[in-house]
Backbone:
């Protein structure tokens, strides 16, 4: 399994650290996976790949809509974990 490193504002990190019951890596993994699934559902690869098919045309993605959906999913994951 691969490992990634994230940079977080200090205040956010301290708030997260106080919530030891939450598996933050699981929330992040789910958010990444679900974001990719949602993106792949809403924007077919052929629509956002550049002609050379090696990079993404970020202008073809509705980021505000995607961000709103992902915040809802993160909230749902968080709510499920603490229930």
Residues:
């Amino acid at each position: 399994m691969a490992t990634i490193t994230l940079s977080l504002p200090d205040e956010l990190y301290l708030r997260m650290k106080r919530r030891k019951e939450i598996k933050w890596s699981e929330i992040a993994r789910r958010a990444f996976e679900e974001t990719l699934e949602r993106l792949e559902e809403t924007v077919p690869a052929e629509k956002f790949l550049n002609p050379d098919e090696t990079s993404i045309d970020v202008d073809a993605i509705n980021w505000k809509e995607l961000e709103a959906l992902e915040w809802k999913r993160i909230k749902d994951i968080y709510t499920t974990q603490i229930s």
